[in-house]
Amino acid sequence: MKLLCLVKHLLTLLIISSSHVSAANESNTIVLTVMDYPPYHSLSMEQFGPIPRIISAAISLSGYSLELKFVPWNRAIEEAKTGEQVDGIMGVWYSEERTKYFLYSDPVMTNKWSLIKKNGTAIDLASSNYRLGTVRGYYIPESVKNKGYDIELVADDEKNLQKLFSGRIQLTLLDENYLNYLIRVKHHRYKDAFTIIKPPVAMMTQYIAISKKTVDPEQKILVINHGLKKIKSSGTFDKIIKQESINN
Asked: What is the pLDDT of residue 17?
């Protein structure tokens, strides 16, 4: 009799446990890793920046909520691949290799990668006789690689701006909106110090990437894409972009 009661108790616990797991997996919350990269997404920005605001507004139309986990870039990618504790990653560029792990949303926003020079510095784009600064791990467009610049790597973009301002490098490679954000918010002394060389050397589209290993990845992509179409047609997307002074 005691054994029968124990078995019934264990079966009850198993059913309760299974229902909790099922409820968690079917939660209408999309959890994404993201790196701190203003003015697109940052812990220091209101509602974490324009892209979180855009995605939150988009998925809310289908009754979903957004949860973000801010971590360094490499960790963001690796955790998103597994689909275990998060569903995917925010603000990722497309690559064929990543399609093994992710489903991509429709385009969210575009990064304009440009060469930056200090005002008063003459740059002949036909010449490769310049020192160019960029950040370790950053994407370097083929057109820049093939120029044969002397490339110097540093830990962050702000260090490159210091070197550019002091004349230790002649060029740096930077997202235009990020440059404008750094000058506007953190480094006022650089106002009118630099020139963005046109046209951009690369236009890189940002996406939301959902892990193929998470629960219902196709459904989550449908929710994101449906919402993006709606908020773009309603004007909400453009309103958020303008509020954050984003040039898209």
From this structure: 29
Indicate the residue type of 145. Answer: K
Q: Which residue has the tokens 């046109």?
A: 198
Give the pLDDT confidence score for residue 223 in this predicted structure.
Answer: 98
Give the pLDDT of residue 135: 85
Q: What is the DSSP string of the chain?
A: -HHHHHHHHHHHHHHHHHHHHHHHHT-SEEEEEE--BTTTB-TTSGGG-HHHHHHHHHHHTTT-EEEEEE--HHHHHHHHHH-SS-SEEEEEE--GGGGGTEEE-S--EEEEEEEEEETT----TT---SEEEEETT----HHHHTTT-EEEEES-HHHHHHHHHHTS-SEEEEEHHHHHHIIIII-GGGTTTEEEPSSPSEEEEEEEEEETTSSSHHHHHHHHHHHHHHHHHHTHHHHHHHHTT---
Distance from C-alpha of 102 to C-alpha of 108, rounded to nearest angstrom:
16
Alpha-carbon distance of 228 to 62, in angstroms, equals 11
Q: Which residues of the chain have pLDDT under 50?
A: 1-25
Distances (CA, A) of 239 to 47, 51, 94, 121: 15, 12, 26, 37
